[in-house]
TrEMBL record:
This is L-2,4-diaminobutyric acid acetyltransferase. InterPro entries: Acyl_CoA_acyltransferase (IPR016181), Ectoine_EctA (IPR012772), GNAT_dom (IPR000182). Belongs to the acetyltransferase family. EctA subfamily. PROSITE patterns: GNAT. Pathway: Amine and polyamine biosynthesis; ectoine biosynthesis; L-ectoine from L-aspartate 4-semialdehyde: step 2/3. Keywords: Acyltransferase, Transferase. Gene3D superfamilies: 3.40.630.30. One of its GO terms (molecular function) is diaminobutyrate acetyltransferase activity. Residues 18-178 form the N-acetyltransferase domain. It is an enzyme of class 2 (transferase). The keyword Lyase does not apply. It comes from the Bacteria.
Length: 180
């Protein structure tokens, strides 16, 4: 899949005719529902998703089959490290899993933030799907991964597993047609 060349790129093709594009505020409600339907994400308020897509649309992405949102990635730039893209949530609808949509969205989003050279995400130790997604991203981009505990149960609450920070990079920008 070709990633958008600039943050202003409107849409790119995804697996199976899915459109991957920048979200708008109206997508917030569908993404809130999708997050809840995953039954694994910490679901933010509906209002939070609306604000996210108002304020952080340039660092987020949605996947649509027709008009239906079937996936999203929310992200932002670290204020103290603007070359780092932090991925907050990744969601793919159950019926769209297993076709590479998560990887296509992640690649598309990173490609749409042209000056990013690192990617960060936090993952709980039991989330094997996210661990595989971000490990594969690092492998595709020939980048190192450093793992460290960012927040433990003493901060998150005893019922919440620790959030492990995956810091991936530096990610070298290269021509996707270059096999070398």
């Amino acid at each position: 899949m070709a990633a958008p060349a600039t943050p202003s790129a409107a849409a790119v093709g995804g697996p199976g005719g899915v459109t991957i594009c920048r979200p708008d505020v109206d997508d917030g409600v569908d993404c809130w529902r999708l997050a809840a339907n995953t039954r694994v994400l910490d679901v933010n308020s509906r209002y939070a998703y609306l604000l996210w897509f108002r304020d952080f649309a340039a660092t987020s992405i949605v996947a649509k089959a027709g008009d239906a949102v079937i996936g999203f990635v929310t992200g932002y730039r670290r204020p103290d490290e603007l070359h780092t893209l932090v991925v907050w949530q990744v969601a793919v609808a159950e019926e769209a899993r297993g076709c590479g949509l998560g990887a296509a969205m992640l690649d598309g989003l990173f490609g749409a933030v042209p000056d990013a050279d690192h990617l960060e995400a936090t993952i709980t130790p039991d989330n094997s799907g996210s661990i595989a997604l971000f490990t594969a991203f690092a492998d595709r981009n020939r980048a190192d991964i450093r793992r460290s505990e960012l927040f433990g149960p003493e901060l998150l609450g005893a019922s919440h597993e620790p959030e492990i920070l995956f810091r991936i990079g530096p990610v070298e920008r290269r021509n996707p047609w270059d096999e070398g």
